[in-house]
Write a structure and sequence with these properties.
This protein has about 200 residues and is mainly alpha-helical. The chain is built from nine helices and no strands. It has two domains: about 110 residues, Orthogonal Bundle (Rna Polymerase Sigma Factor, Chain: A), CATH 1.10.1740; about 90 residues, Orthogonal Bundle (Arc Repressor Mutant, subunit A). α5 crosses α8 and α7 crosses α8. It is globular and about 50 Å long.
């Protein structure tokens, strides 16, 4: 009998429902199915930091177990875990940037102000706010597609069905939205910050 992707999806939804009830077997099924793919995803994002990839995979699935009651079987599980991994990676890179700034200050014998970390946090907050203002500048249809994809974690197929448009249209709108954001961010932020954000959009 030929393999059916749809049956796989239904099986995954069943395991997510069982996981919400605390079923460890369901958790093991999802871990075994997705941990390797998630590891490869993080390895690609970090250009080969295997220790970091292993750490993030562990953190993602710990978070899945701890927040199992909030899982939605109707949402695409892969999109959900990849988004968690991406956010964890962003937080780690933010911490690294703080540490690098601190080390550079020490090497240059420049006193490090106590509020240095707070200032950097404010900078990242301002960046987040700037990104939000850019999203508001998108055409309404493009903005809706982007928010459904990046904020609500809908797959392209789910967006197409929800908005009654083709998946090609969804992909086109997403690509145009991301290109617009990347161009604007690169114009206003230094190379290292821009590169980090652009990789994670």
């Amino acid at each position: 009998m030929p393999h059916c992707p749809e049956s796989d999806m239904h099986e995954e939804q069943l395991h997510i429902r069982n996981l919400k009830k605390g079923d460890i077997t369901a958790f093991e099924y999802l871990y075994n199915k997705w941990s390797g793919k998630l590891y490869n995803f993080v390895m690609k994002m970090t250009t080969g930091e295997d220790y970091l990839a292993e750490e993030i995979v562990q953190q993602v699935f710990i978070s899945i177990w701890e927040n199992k009651l909030s899982l939605d079987p109707e949402k695409t599980f892969s999109t959900f875990i990849f988004t968690i991994a991406r956010n964890l990676l962003l937080n780690i890179y933010r911490k690294r940037s703080h540490e690098l700034l601190y080390q550079k200050n020490l090497i240059s014998y420049i006193p490090v102000p106590v509020e240095n970390t707070t200032e950097k946090e404010v900078e990242f907050k301002m960046l987040d706010e700037y990104i939000n203002t850019l999203i508001e500048q998108l055409p309404p249809a493009r903005k809706e597609v982007f928010l459904l994809s990046r904020h609500h974690l809908y797959s392209n197929k789910e967006i197409a069905k929800k908005l009654n448009i083709s998946e090609n249209t969804v992909e086109s709108q997403l690509r145009k939205a991301i290109n617009f954001l990347r161009e604007k961010i690169a114009q206003h932020y230094n190379y290292s910050i821009s590169l980090l954000v652009l990789c994670l959009l």
